[in-house]
């Protein structure tokens, strides 16, 4: 099963600012808590594909610009 991981948290924070968002305002726009969004951006949590799409769309980017799929093997 694949999970989504953040590519470059610095880039996403730059794009937040360039698009006029704070972490708090983007979290409200994509309907998650500020703490959860921060965890996603720091690589501590994996976003759902829907959340990744919402984040990317709000920042006028494609999902692949911010996230990559990581395969996880369960034994």
Automatic annotation (TrEMBL):
Q: Specify whether Ribonucleoprotein is a keyword of the entry.
A: no
* GO molecular function list: DNA binding
Taking every annotated instance into account, which residue ranges of this chain make up the domain HTH cro/C1-type? 19-66
Segment forming the signal sequence:
none
Looking up InterPro entries in the UniProt record yields:
Cro/C1-type_HTH, Lambda_DNA-bd_dom_sf
Q: Which SUPFAM superfamilies match?
A: lambda repressor-like DNA-binding domains
Write down the Gene3D superfamilies for this protein, in alphabetical order: lambda repressor-like DNA-binding domains (1.10.260.40)
Question: What name is this protein filed under?
Answer: DNA-binding XRE family transcriptional regulator
What keywords appear on the UniProt entry? DNA-binding
What CDD domains does this protein map onto?
HTH_XRE
Pfam families associated with the record: HTH_3
Organism from which the protein derives:
Alkalibacterium olivapovliticus
| Source taxon at top rank | Bacteria
> Is DNA-binding tagged as a keyword?
yes
């Amino acid at each position: 099963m694949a999970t989504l991981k953040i590519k470059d948290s610095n880039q996403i924070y730059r794009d937040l600012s360039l698009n006029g968002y704070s972490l708090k305002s983007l979290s409200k726009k994509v309907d998650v808590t500020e703490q959860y969004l921060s965890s996603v951006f720091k690589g501590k949590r994996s976003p759902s594909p829907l959340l990744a799409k919402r984040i990317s769309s709000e920042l006028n980017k494609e999902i692949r610009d911010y996230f990559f799929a990581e395969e996880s093997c369960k034994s």
